[in-house]
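Lab manual, section 2.4: Encoding a predicted structure.

Procedure: take the sequence of the chain (98 residues), apply the prediction step described in section 2.3, and record the output as structure tokens. A sample record is shown.
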Amino acid sequence: MTAFNAVRFRVKPGQDEAFLDAHRAAQAQWPGMLSARIIKTGDRTYCVIAEWTDMEALAAARPHMVATLDSFRHTLEDLGGGLGVTDAVSGPVVLDLR
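Recorded output:
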């Protein structure tokens, strides 16, 4: 069964384009990643949602995801509550509602 990860971000004022440009530059063509989308969820807030072939592929890509994050970390605000600059969750699909 496929897996998904979702990561929430809040960018610093004036950093939206730098945030998006860093993702464009990353060329995330990682093995097992089926698709990825960036959703604008509010003023300066975004969520990246990616679909993976399985949890193993997602886990194997984590070092690449962290390296990509490091390329735009300076554009992000701390989310508070001990989260740091990201709020990430992931897991296998347990029910497909299509």
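Check your result against the sample. The CA atoms of residues 5 and 79 lie 18 Å apart.
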